[in-house]
Amino acid sequence: MRTPENSADLVAAEDVLLFANAAITATGQREFRSGALDQRLSLDFLHAYMRVNYRRLYAASLALDINDHNAARIVLGLLETAGEASAEERRTEGRLIAARLARLPPQRVYRLFGEVRRAGINNRRTRAIMRDWLAARPDLGHDAVKYRSGVKTAARHVHLRCPQGAEPLAEVGAFLFRPGKLPRYEHPLLDAWRRAHYEQGAVAELPFTVAEGFAARHGMKRETFLKRAAPRMTRLERLRTHAVTQRPDVDLAAMPLTRLALYVLALPFEQRATRRAELTGALRTAARRAAGKHAGSWGRVHAVLDDSFSSSGSGQKRRRPLAVALACHHLLEVLAEPGAYRGLWTSGRGDALLVRPWGPTPLGMRVLDALEPGPGGAAPDRLVIVSDGWDNAPAGLAGEVLRVWRARLDPGRRTAVVHVNPVYDADGFDVRRLAAGVPTAGIRDAEDLPALVEIARFAEGRTGSAELHAYLDRRVALFLGEKDTEKETEKETENETEKGTMS
Fold first, then answer.
1. What is the CA 38 to chain-centroid distance, rounded?
2. Which helix (H) or strand (E) holds 384?
3. Quick one: how far is CA 160 from the chain centroid?
4. Could you tell me if 83 and 117 are in contact, meaning their C-beta atoms sit under 8 angstroms apart?
5. Residue 250 φ/ψ region, left for φ over 0, alpha for ψ in the -120 to 50 degree band, beta for the rest
6. What is the pLDDT of residues 451-498, one digit of tens each?
7. What are the angstrom distances between the C-alpha of 302 and each of 39, 174, 285, 413?
8. Contact at 8 Å (CB) between 261 and 284?
9. Model confidence pLDDT, tens digit, residues 292-310
10. Which of 197, 380, 381, 484 could form an S-S bond across to 299 if both were Cys, CB 3.0 to 4.6 Å?
11. CA 152, CA 159: separation in Å to the nearest integer?
């Protein structure tokens, strides 16, 4: 019989896994089957529940592969309720917050600082965290041009001292709070912003998002502006404008795998077919980079990939579930032994490059096909299901197939089964599961698949809460000691250290 303490530990472990799934997949935006308000209310409850009942674990989740939206919400919640934490907890939280802020895109951090100011959070620790982050920025003048209102709000909130004179910080202070006072700036971007008000040639010197507004003010043709601004664009900006500029130096293979899959799915079928070699090669290169040391280590892998109509996502997350499935398809091909991968789409299509959201979700039938022995009569070592979990043709067949398979045909668990779900179910406060005995993890980016499979094993019920807590402690230690921020740079929104060339 379980002791009360053991039961409490198990409940805590289940709550942590539930919150991790939500924090990975949910962004408060509309999904195919639920509205934005439902998503936000569901997330509000989960964040409050975790912060009140498991504050240490709530803070530790900053070290997991959660999405930026929930990372910012956790930081805000911890700063807002600092009085509820002990001195030791505040020290640990401060380190986790600083490490997470360093990995967030700058525009999201400035947005978070605005929320901090609106919430009236102005204690000494919060100001120190904000000052340290601002001091670590590689070029605050660049930020002042690109995120002017955000930098201004943060500087006011922390009482950032901007001395008089010709120092860089003094110029930033004059630019933000005394515009027009200086006849010119020594910082090239600040001076380019000044000149762009009356000089077209200075427009192309500015960051792309700022230059767009000046280009419209000067009446510049879109094509001409894009070609002039291309050298200063970030990687994602080049990809977005590639159809107009047609620049040959856009390296698709350098894009993060899931972002590249979204780009491919946005292309018409004719372009996908015409550029088949280029697009397929880029997807495979990105998948090899994402797999890293795990390449070829998963043995025989069969996958069931959901391309049903619900994979079209929503107006805010257009084709996101399908893009995750496409990215996972190429990643699993690399993770498997050479020639030992088999991917099955729910629609029955065999051409991954031309998939589209269509039809019902016959997961049960595809799971039956995937569990069949591959070449040589061997069962797969791993079965990976990438789906939103709405098995409806017929309903519930996938869960029953997996139950019978595990109970009658594979009680020794020779085949590891895992379900990764890219869609948060607001009503269930979790991602939708196929069956109780099938480990399920939320997923947002296919690149996180190896780490999520490790998390999913805790949901299978064969490991205890002590193992989960030890895993979280390891992730926190690695997170706080890690110096490489390459992964966050690859999240692409901005590469703020660029001065005009793309990395």
1. 21
2. strand 382-386
3. 31
4. no
5. beta
6. 888 888 777 655 567 888 888 888 999 999 864 443 443 343 444 333
7. 32, 60, 21, 15
8. no
9. 999 999 999 999 999 999 9
10. 381
11. 10
CA distance 101 to 134: 11
User: Averaging pLDDT over each range in 348-352, 378-382, 433-437, which range is the top one?
Assistant: 348-352
How, if at all, do strands 430-431 and 424-425 pair?
Answer: antiparallel
Segment 368-372 mean pLDDT: 92
Spatial CA neighbour of 386 closest among 423, 413, 350: 423
Radius of gyration over every alpha carbon of the chain, rounded to an integer in angstroms: 25
Selection from 191, 182, 118, 187 nearest residue 150 by Cα? 118
If you average pLDDT over residues 225-251, what whole number do you get?
Answer: 75
Q: Structure pTM? A: 0.88
What spatial distance separates the first Cα and last Cα of the chain, rounded to whole Å? Answer: 58
CB 300, CB 375: distance < 8 Å: no
Retrieve residue 337's tokens: 């032994």
What residue type is 166 in one-letter code? A
Letter for the amino acid at 78? L
Q: Are 20 and 442 in contact (CB under 8 A)?
A: yes
| 495 touches 106 (CB < 8 A) | no
Task: Judge contact between 19 and 61, C-beta under 8 A.
Answer: yes
CA distance 133 to 107: 13
d(CA 93, CA 56): 8
Q: What's the CA gap between 173 and 320, in Å, rounded?
A: 41
Residues 236, 493 contacting (CB under 8 angstroms):
yes
Q: With the CA atoms of 400, 450, 381 and 283 taken in that order, what torsion angle do they form, in degrees rounded to the nearest 10?
A: 100
Residue 279 phi, psi (nearest 5): -70, -45
What pLDDT is stored for residue 239 in this prediction? 78
Which residues are bridge partners to 302 per DSSP?
342, 383
How is residue 377 written in tokens?
């009569």
Reported as a single tens digit per residue, the pLDDT across 168-194 is: 678 888 899 888 788 889 999 999 999
Mean pLDDT, the chain, whole residue set? 87
- Cα 336–Cα 340–Cα 343 angle in degrees, nearest 5: 85
Interatomic CA distance for residues 302 and 185, integer angstroms: 60
Distances (CA, A) of 55 to 62, 89, 128, 480: 12, 9, 22, 18
Tally the residues of the chain: 503
Give the pLDDT of residue 8.
74
CA dihedral of residues 73, 75, 76, 77 (deg, nearest 10) = 80
Q: What is the greatest pairwise CA distance in the chain?
A: 81
Q: Which of 99, 113, 111 is nearest to 155 (CA)?
A: 113
Residues in CB range of 24: below 8 A, 6 or more apart: 64, 65, 66, 67, 70, 441, 442, 443, 444, 448, 452
